[in-house]
Every structure is written in C-alpha cells, then in structure tokens.
# Entry
Amino acid sequence: MTEEDDIDALAAEYVLGSLDAVERAEVEVRRMADASLDRAIEAWERRLGPLSEREPGVEPPGHLYGRILERIAAQRGGAGHSAEIIPLRPRSRRWRMSKVGAGGALAACLALAIAWFTYLHVGAPAPTPHTTMDCGGLYKDYWQRFDRQTLTRISGDQLANASRLALRAYDACAAGDEQNAKAQFEKLRRMQF
Amino acid sequence: MPLSRQELVGALERTALGDKAAFELVYKATSLKLYGIVTRILKRRDLADEVLQEVYLRVWQRARDFDPASGSPITWMAAIARNLALDEVRRKTAGSLDDFPEILQLPSGDDPAAEQERSEELRRLYACIDRLEADRKELLLLAYHEGMSRKELSDRLGRPVATVKTWLRRSLAQLKECLGR
# Structure
C-alpha cells in the first residue's frame, strides 16, 4: 500500500466515524500540517455526505435556539468579522502530562495534538482590549511551522515545553506586554528541534 | 420549515454577514436533521443539547467558509455536526437509543418510497453501497450513522477488530472506485 493509499484510508475512516479518540486527534493534528490529508478528508466528506439525507431527524428542545443566541451574544461583536484565535487551555494538566509520557512518536503526536487543541477559532471577536497585536495570529503562526517531518523528529517532552512557552507568550501579548511577548515568540521561533 | 438548497445557501451567505434573521431561517430549516444526527451518535440528551449548541455556534462563526461550489449546505453543516458529535462521543460514554423513543429508524435501503425521496447524489452513492456484501454494508452504515468505533463494531459483530478494520477499508476503497472520484 502506498503512502497515498494510507492517507486516503485514514481520511475515509475519519469521515466514516470509526476511528477511536486518539486516532481522531492524530488525524485532526496531521491535517493541519498535511494538505494531502486535508484534501482527502474533504473529498470523503463529499462522497459520504449524501448519507446524512437518510436521517429523518429529531425535534430539538424549544429552548435550545435561545441558548444559542445567548452564547452568540456573550461573544463580543458579531459574525462577519474575521475570527480571532485564542488558545484553549487543556482542561487538566495531569491529562496532558500523562499523554506526553506515553513515549515515542505517538507521544510526540499526542503532545502536538494537545498543542494544536490549545487554540481555537472564535467568531465574534473584538480586538484584545490591551493590545493592538494579533496575539491569536502569532500563536497560531508559531504552531503552523510544525510540519510532518518535525513531528516525527520531536519528542513529547519538547513539544509539551514548547506548548507551555507558547501559552506564556500569548498571555504576555494579550496582557499588552508587547515587548515581552515579542521576545518570547522570537525565542520560540529560534528553538531547534 | 423546508428551504430549497438555493434559499439555504442565501440564508447562510446572509448569516456570514451577521444577519440573525437569516441565521434563524438556517436553524429552523436544518435543526431537525442536525439534532437527529447528533442524537443518533451520542444517544444522550444532555450531550446532544450541548453539541447542537456548539454546531450552530460554529455555523454562525464560519458561515463565510461555506463554498456553494464544493457541495450542498446541508452536507457542510452535517459534517460539522458529525465531527463534533464524534469527538464528544469518544470522550464520553454514549447512552442507549432506548432512551430516545422519538428517534426514528433510518429508512431501509430497499424502501421504494424512500428511494423516490433520494437526491441524485445519494442514489449514486447507494447504488455503490448496495454492491457491498450485506455484513460489510451494515458495518459501514453503523459506523456512519451511529458513529461506532472499530472496537464497538467488533463487539457488535463478534469479529476481531483487525477484521473490522480490513473490511471497512476495503469497503471504502470499493466505494471510491465505484463512485469514480
């Protein structure tokens, strides 16, 4: 089986829904750095998507739409603005470290998964009040540099460390400490793996 | 409230500009189906309610990412709903479909009435799915609609996980070849 077949099979199972939690996380990480996987996933979504037509549907509870509007209102601004990226903190530090400790390429992949999942797009964004810097953009740009080659080389501990430093740099940026944030992002960029 | 594909595309485009009335149209036209998709995967009301809210928050935030040239709006929204529900069900324990008396059985593959209702895309896909052996077809549809993992499928069918993986991958490769794209 060629690597292309392998990527396609992984994308197919991802869209089908048969992967377990770790495999799903790995795919979600890899697709950020691997355009061929991302394209394969989109192609499988188009192929299998018509199956959703078969779903007869269930009426959602009446109060849900109100809850959605409240959550939209709770965000600053509205749709139509460019989405801001903010880091999403891991829910549990212990969880993060236990995964990092798993060893080998899987640990590196998991650590990167955790790192990737530490940011998310939020809509409705207003500029961070304390700064004119694009803190989310800087944070995301930093993680974009991790391609598949780096991924296979890097250790879980190194990634966990980079993740901590990147969050610290983001926090400095969001707090308006531009000089410190710039220095920290620069230090991160210089880190060799 | 049914909307034509074109009307739904228009409502999504207006949603991308922050039009809440258009967003409400999108919600009314699609929430029945999307709630069905997430409940079938999660089988728990508390999780389904939470995930459906997340789905529409994403739709509100990312409506501008929808490209009508690349597929139907409902397929785009269903992919968001399935991905969020699948991520959630892998983190939490799913419930039982018995807790959802209102969830309907999926239409059977050989129901002529259901056949009439199918879009051209679904007819073409189904023609390919029908070429699979019966047990492999069942595996594929259980994974897609109920979000069952290889392990869950293996328990359900009493076959080793490795066999399930091989069957799924072969079936998917066959489908791709049959669809010719």
